[in-house]
Design goal:
The chain has two domains: 254 residues, no CATH class; 284 residues, Beta-galactosidase, Chain A, domain 5 (Distorted Sandwich), CATH 2.70.98. The strands form three sheets. The chain has a nine-stranded antiparallel sheet. The chain is built from 15 helices and 20 strands.
C-alpha cells in the first residue's frame, strides 16, 4: 500500500491536533466551568435565601427624582402579591398583574414558554413583585423641577379609572390626585406580544406653571444566576446614540459613586431612538422612550442589607404645564422573549419607519443593524455576527418550511458543504495526486534519508512540478471552524432553538443528547455524571469520524497512528456535553465529507480501501508490511 509522506502526515496531524485543542479548550473553559458555577450559584442562592429569611432588610434609597427603590425581605410570591390591590394582565402570551401601589408592572408570566420539558412544568415567570427574593419590576412617574409639589412614587396608591383588566385592545387607566391641584393619569395598553405602551398625563389645576420630567425605571433585586459566562452577555444592555452597549452586573459594581443618584451610577445623554434595559439568555426587559426627543439613560447599583438592587432608568426632558392646562407623554416597555421576528417588528415601530420592500433592504437592516434602534441586537450575536445572523436566518426559514429544527440543521449542513465544495474538490484532488506521487516521494526519502534539507528541496520541486499543494487538505477543516462556532453560538443564544424537538429521544436541540452509553441508554435505572453523558448522537458522530479516517492509509509511524485512532474517541467524549443540534450537524457534516471525499478520489483514479482499513483497525486483518 502506498503511504503518505511524513510532511503530509505532519500536516494532517497538525490540523487534527489544532481542531482537538479548540474543542478541548471549549470544553474545559466553557462547559466544565458552567456546571461548576451553576452548582456554586445554587449553593450561594440557598445561603442568601436563608439570610434574607433571618433579617427584614432595609429600604433602598430612590435615585434622585427618577423612580423608587424597593424593600428587602423575602416573601413567597402569593403573599407578596396580596400586599396591594391589583389589576389582572391577560393576553395570549402574557399573564400576570400590575400593582395599584406604585402602579408597577411586577407580575408577568410568559405562557408560551415553560421552565422545562416536563408536562407539569410551570410557565416562565419574568417579573416578580417587591419583597420576593428575586423582585423584578417596572414603574413610571414624574420628577418635579423647581418645586416641591407631590408627585406619584413607589408608595402611591393609584385608583382604577377605566378598564377591568389589561388585555390587547383593552387598556386600563390609573388616576391619582395629589391634593394640591395636580391630577395624574396613567394609561397602560398591551399588544398581542410583549410590548406595553405607557401614556402618562398631568393636569395642572393650580394658578402657577409646573415643570415635570417623566421617567421610567426597571428594578432588579439580587444578582440573577448567569448561564452564559463569557459566551453570552447577561446584564444591562441598550442602544444609545445608535451604538450598542453592554454592562455585566460586575461592571455596574465598578461604576463611580454618584451623589446625584445616591449610589454607583452611570448616566448617558442619548439621542432619540435609543433604549435601555436588562437581558437574560432568552428574556429581556427594556424601556424605550418616544422618538421625538432625547433622554437621559441611567444605570445604577444600590447595595442593601438584603442584596444589590440593579436599576435601568430613562429620564425624558422636563415639560412645563401651564395653569389650567395638561400635558401627556408616551413611552414603551418591552418585557418578554427575545424572538428575532418580534424584535425586528418592534425595531421598525420604534424607528417609526416602514419595513424595507426590497430583500436587499431587509438583509442590510438585519445583518448590519441599519435601523436606528437596533432592537434585534438585543440578541448577543457575537463578534461573528456576519456568520451567526445568516446561519440563524437560514435555520429559521428551513424550520418554517419543514417544521423540524433538527432537519433544518441537517439541511444547513448540506448548504454549507455545497458552498464549500470548491475547497473540498481542491483538497481531495490534491490528496489524490499526493497518493499517486507516493512512489516518487518514497524514492526521494530513501535517497536523501541522511540529508533532510536536500530531501525537502526535492519534495518541494516535485510538488511544484506536479502542481500539488500538500497543505490543501487543511482547507476544508479551517473553513469549517468559524462556521462550527457560529452555529454553536446560534444554538446557544436563540430562543427559537430552545426546547426545539428533533425525533425520538432528542426533544431539546439546545441541550445535550439525554441518553448515555453508561446506563445502557436508559435501560439501567440510574443517572450518570455529566462528563459520562455520551449519548447516541455523540457515538454516531465518533463512528462517522472514524470511518472518515479510513479513507486514508494509516501512517507508517506507530505513534501517529495511535494519535489518529484516539481522536474519534476523544471527540466523542468532548462533544457528549454539547448541544444535540451541534452534534447532529457534525455527524451530518462527516457523512457528507465521506461521500464527497470517496467520490472525488475515485474520480481521480484512487480507490480508498475503506473496508480494508476498517478490518485492519479492528484486528480482523493482518497489518500490511511496509514496502
Amino acid at each position: 500500500m502506498q503511504q503518505p509522506s511524513k510532511d503530509d502526515q505532519r500536516n494532517l496531524i497538525l490540523a487534527a491536533v489544532l481542531s482537538f485543542a479548540v474543542i478541548a479548550l471549549w470544553q474545559f473553559l466553557v462547559i466544565s466551568p458552567q456546571v461548576e458555577e451553576q452548582r456554586r450559584a445554587a449553593e450561594l442562592a440557598a445561603i442568601e435565601e436563608q439570610a434574607r429569611l433571618e433579617e427584614s432588610g432595609e429600604a433602598a434609597v430612590a435615585p434622585s427624582g427618577i423612580g423608587g427603590g424597593g424593600q428587602g425581605g423575602t416573601l413567597d410570591r402569593e403573599t407578596a402579591l396580596a400586599q396591594s390591590p391589583r389589576i389582572d394582565i391577560d393576553s395570549p402570551r402574557l399573564q400576570g398583574s400590575l400593582s395599584l401601589q406604585g402602579g408597577r408592572i411586577d407580575e408577568l408570566l410568559m405562557t408560551d414558554y415553560r421552565v422545562s420539558l416536563e408536562e407539569d412544568s410551570e410557565a416562565v415567570e419574568l417579573l416578580w413583585p417587591e419583597k420576593t427574593g428575586q423582585a423584578y419590576y417596572a414603574e413610571f412617574g414624574w420628577q418635579p423641577e423647581g418645586g416641591a409639589y407631590p408627585t406619584p412614587g413607589p408608595r402611591t396608591e393609584w385608583a382604577r379609572e377605566t378598564g377591568e383588566k389589561l388585555a390587547p385592545g383593552s387598556p386600563v387607566t390609573l388616576y391619582w390626585d395629589n391634593g394640591e391641584g395636580l391630577v395624574f393619569r396613567r394609561t397602560i395598553s398591551l399588544d398581542e406580544n410583549y410590548l406595553f405602551t405607557i401614556s402618562q398625563s398631568v393636569e395642572n389645576r393650580t394658578s402657577a406653571p409646573v415643570r415635570l420630567a417623566p421617567y421610567g425605571i426597571i428594578s432588579r433585586h439580587g444578582t440573577p444566576q448567569l448561564t452564559g459566562f463569557w459566551i453570552l452577555h447577561e446584564g444591562a444592555v441598550g442602544v444609545l446614540n445608535e451604538e450598542l452597549f453592554e454592562y455585566d452586573y460586575d461592571d455596574m459594581a465598578e461604576f463611580d459613586v454618584s451623589r446625584r443618584f445616591q449610589g454607583r451610577a452611570q448616566a448617558i445623554e442619548a439621542d432619540p431612538g435609543g433604549w435601555i434595559g436588562f437581558t437574560d439568555k432568552y428574556w429581556m426587559t427594556a424601556l424605550v422612550p418616544a422618538n421625538n426627543a432625547g433622554f437621559e439613560a441611567v444605570l445604577r447599583l444600590t447595595d442593601t442589607r438584603s442584596g444589590p438592587i440593579y436599576q435601568a432608568a430613562t429620564r425624558m426632558p422636563a415639560i412645563e404645564v401651564a395653569p389650567n392646562a395638561s400635558a401627556e407623554t408616551s413611552s414603551y416597555f418591552f418585557a418578554g422573549a427575545k424572538e428575532i421576528g418580534t424584535l425586528r417588528d418592534y425595531a421598525y415601530k420604534f424607528d417609526d419607519v416602514e419595513r424595507p420592500d426590497s430583500v436587499i433592504g431587509n438583509v442590510s437592516d438585519y445583518l448590519f443593524g441599519s435601523s436606528r434602534s437596533r432592537f434585534t441586537d438585543a440578541i448577543d450575536w457575537g463578534w461573528f455576527f456576519f456568520l451567526t445572523k445568516p446561519i440563524f436566518e437560514i435555520l429559521a426559514v428551513l424550520n418554517d418550511w419543514i417544521g423540524n429544527m433538527g432537519v433544518a440543521i441537517i439541511l444547513l449542513t448540506v448548504i454549507v458543504k455545497t458552498l464549500l465544495f470548491p475547497l473540498a474538490w481542491k483538497s481531495y484532488v490534491s490528496m489524490s495526486k499526493l497518493k499517486k506521487l507516493q512512489p516518487e516521494m518514497k524514492k526521494i526519502q530513501e535517497r536523501h534519508s541522511e540529508d533532510r534539507t536536500k530531501m525537502q528541496q526535492e519534495m518541494m520541486h516535485l510538488y511544484k512540478k506536479e502542481k500539488v499543494n500538500p497543505a490543501a487538505g487543511c482547507l476544508p477543516i479551517l473553513a469549517q471552524i468559524p462556521i462550527f462556532f457560529s452555529l454553536y453560538k446560534v444554538i446557544f443564544v436563540t430562543i427559537e432553538v430552545r426546547h426545539a424537538p428533533f425525533f425520538g429521544w432528542v426533544q431539546d436541540l439546545s441541550a445535550p443528547d439525554p441518553t448515555s452509553l453508561f446506563n445502557l441508554f436508559g435501560l439501567l435505572p440510574y443517572e450518570v455524571p455529566a462528563f459520562l453523558l455520551i449519548g447516541v448522537w455523540p457515538i454516531l458522530m465518533g463512528i462517522s469520524m472514524w470511518v472518515q479516517q479510513m479513507l486514508n492509509p494509516a501512517p507508517t509511524d506507530p505513534m501517529q497512528e495511535k494519535i489518529f485512532n484516539l481522536l474519534p474517541l476523544l471527540f466523542t467524549f468532548l462533544l457528549g456535553t454539547f448541544a444535540a443540534g451541534l452534534v447532529i450537524y457534525w455527524f451530518a457534516n462527516n457523512v457528507l465529507t465521506i461521500i464527497q471525499q470517496y467520490t472525488i478520489m475515485r474520480s481521480q483514479g484512487v480507490n480508498p480501501d475503506i473496508l480494508g482499513n476498517m478490518k485492519r483497525q479492528l484486528g480482523l486483518a493482518p497489518k500490511e508490511k511496509p514496502s
